């Protein structure tokens, strides 16, 4: 009787060297993917900074442009303000010289000079007022840096109310211009104001690396004509 022989079967597998090579490749791929992911997150973060800062700047710029344009409207005759060394007359453009500089602008306007009326009936709601004593009639816009943050503030000097217009910006500049568009010799001679608000974007990554973005600055500008400044004089 013939007995069948049973041989020993070898099982296939990976050698230590093959496992080490596979692990090295996987580590390399994982590291590259992680690097790309971090770079993508950094780019996204900077784009968020750009969009949020630009939106903040645009909102503030629109408010300043709209309100400053009415500076000097229907000012009472002989209006003065307190200044170092005594009182001074408010110029036709409504700007308070002692409180106007590259990062601050203060102005007065008689917003209720004509009073308010109910459109359907024409009945007066508020009578005309020939004084600078109500809300929104003495306004200050100021860029503030406190060492940790920057923000642009609107302050009503009559009511004392303050409002932060923007806190994601990095700089503000007011330029007071004459009729020819040059720098006005004095605040009283200013016929228009150029307003600049900017946002600084930080560098992302290193030069030559994937996703690198150099530092940049986004600037928004607005030119405001002071329509009550007697533009045909000076």
Walk me through what this model shows.
- With 234 residues, this protein is an alpha+beta fold.
- The protein has one domain.
- 23% of the residues lie in helices and 28% in strands.
- It has one helix and eleven strands.
- It is elongated.
Beta fraction:
25-35%
How many individual domains? 1
Distance between the amino and carboxyl termini: 131 Å
Mean pLDDT: 81
Instruction: Give the fraction of residues assigned to helices.
Output: 10-25%
What is the count of helical runs?
1
Shape: elongated
Low-confidence stretches: none
Structural class: alpha+beta
Secondary structure topology:
Layout: H1 16-68, E1 80-83, E2 86-89, E3 104-108, E4 116-117, E5 124-126, E6 138-145, E7 150-156, E8 162-166, E9 171-177, E10 192-201, E11 216-225
Antiparallel strand pairs: 1-2, 3-6, 4-5, 6-7, 7-8, 9-10, 10-11
Report a brief summary of the structure:
This protein has 234 residues and is α+β, with helices and mostly antiparallel strands. It is built from one helix and eleven strands. The protein starts with 15 loop residues before the first helix and ends in a 9-residue tail after the last strand.
Main features:
alpha+beta, 3-stranded antiparallel β-sheet, 23% helix, 11 strands, 4-stranded antiparallel β-sheet, 234 residues
């Amino acid at each position: 009787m013939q007995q069948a022989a049973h041989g020993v079967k070898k099982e296939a597998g990976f050698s230590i060297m093959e496992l080490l090579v596979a692990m090295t490749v996987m580590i390399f791929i994982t590291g590259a993917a992680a690097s790309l992911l971090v770079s993508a997150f950094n780019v996204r973060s900077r784009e968020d900074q750009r969009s949020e800062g630009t939106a903040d700047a645009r909102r503030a710029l629109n408010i300043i442009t709209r309100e400053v344009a009415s500076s000097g409207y229907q000012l009472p005759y002989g209006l003065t303000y307190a200044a170092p060394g005594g009182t001074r007359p408010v110029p036709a453009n409504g700007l308070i010289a002692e409180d106007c500089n590259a990062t601050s602008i203060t102005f007065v306007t008689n917003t209720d000079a004509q009073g308010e009326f109910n459109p359907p009936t024409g009945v007066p709601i508020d009578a005309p007022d020939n004084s600078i004593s109500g809300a929104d009639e003495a306004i200050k816009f100021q860029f503030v840096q406190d060492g940790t943050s920057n923000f642009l503030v609107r302050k009503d000097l009559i009511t004392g109310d303050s409002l932060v217009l923007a806190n994601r910006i990095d700089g503000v500049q007011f330029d007071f211009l004459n009729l020819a568009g040059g720098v006005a010799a004095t605040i009283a001679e200013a016929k228009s104001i150029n307003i600049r608000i900017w946002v600084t974007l930080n560098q992302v990554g290193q030069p030559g690396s994937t996703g690198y973005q150099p530092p940049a600055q986004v600037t928004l500008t607005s030119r405001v004509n002071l329509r009550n400044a007697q533009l045909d004089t000076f």
